[in-house]
Amino acid sequence: MAKLTILIGDDHTLVRQGLRKIVEEQPDWTVVAEAGDGRDVVRKALQLKPDVIILDIGMPLLNGIEATSQITRRMSNAHILILSMHFDEAYITRALQAGAHGYLLKDSADTDLVRAVTAVAAGKSFFSPAVARVMLDDYVQHLADKGIEDRYDSLSEREREVFQLVAEGYSGKEVASMLTISPATVETHRAHIMEKLDVHSTAELVLRAVRRGIIR
Fold it and tell me: Span 210-214, mean pLDDT?
């Protein structure tokens, strides 16, 4: 079995060493490189094409979100896990829009890193449980303050199933197979979901699922 290759980007040596230790305790995982600044992360990602890139937001020379954007523009299949101490929804939104698959808080890396990397490597989404809870609380409070109805309640049962599977990172073909429907029907459901929820991209759809507490 081929090893899962991982690039770690963080400007703190001790953090990189801690992450490497967790990663290399897994039988078929290996760290192919480390980087201490955003520009070096981009260079090594494009050169080595690792299966997963673990990337801090607060990087010198080039921040982690911009590094994510540059990598995903040139490597459409890049699987990036953002590592951060920030709960702020603005960071999470920007990370998703840049192309990240997951958002892991540094203080939960020791317990959640393996699950996060496993999910992201498979093209799935992963968010620290604390992030999901904070975003759900903020979202509920925002709706209450604005007197807005949660449009999720307008989705049909089948649309809710498709919504969750798409937000978790499954492809249209995979969703079709799991639900025993055609890929064309999946795309029709997806279009209806995006229209009903007033979202315009997969990143927004994933963000809405995190806010609603549907994926974690």
Answer: 69
